[in-house]
Amino acid sequence: QVQLQQSGAELAKPGSSVKISCKASGYTFTSYYISWIKQTTGQGLEYIGYINTGSGGTNYNEKFKGKATLTVDKSSSTAFMQLSSLTPDDSAVYYCARDLADWGQGTLVTVSS
Amino acid sequence: DVVLTQTPPTLSATIGQSVSISCRSSQSLLDSDGDTYLNWLLQRPGQSPQLLIYSVSNLESGVPNRFSGSGSETDFTLKISGVEAEDLGVYYCMQATHAPYTFGAGTKLELK
Q1: What is the pLDDT of residues A15-36, one digit of tens each?
Q2: I need a labelling partner for B37 at 20 to 30 A (CA). Which of A72, B4, B68, B73 fits?
């Protein structure tokens, strides 16, 4: 069955970067886009953007341009999201999703000094 | 950005009761390709969201047929015909017609 396995929780300092992974299995990785979604208690669910896993082409929500960078490694069927210049506002649970039909378990990112 | 307004914010129901959730969009969600990309998701406590319905009324594989979706343009409804205990959680509508994709604030379904 389709599975998206995300990397573990991150504790990061303000100004640093983190890179979250999303390893896919159970389907042809390059046949589906991977989306990334942010969830916070205050802002709810926010769509960050998606990556075309075949071509590597990306589409970002303007709000997250410069903050998130989406990449893929086709050899390992893994999608990545790097978050840079972290601030406390970036503290959230981040999900990857395949076509929004299948979701990873979420990765908690906590930004604190 | 498209704003999706969900009502009610909280819904209390008994097992077996039928309930409806409304989602109103600040813009028409009818795409130029003729499709309307309005989806419904459920997030159970402690779990990731799961897709229930896509493109207004299409049931995702494996989702019980007590769930149904309807609507057009700017007004959409999710109906649960006979709530079961496993249906408790937060329901979100989400649009994928206009960039950036956006979500409603959620409707929490609780047991009365």
Answers
A1: 999 999 999 999 999 999 999 9
A2: A72
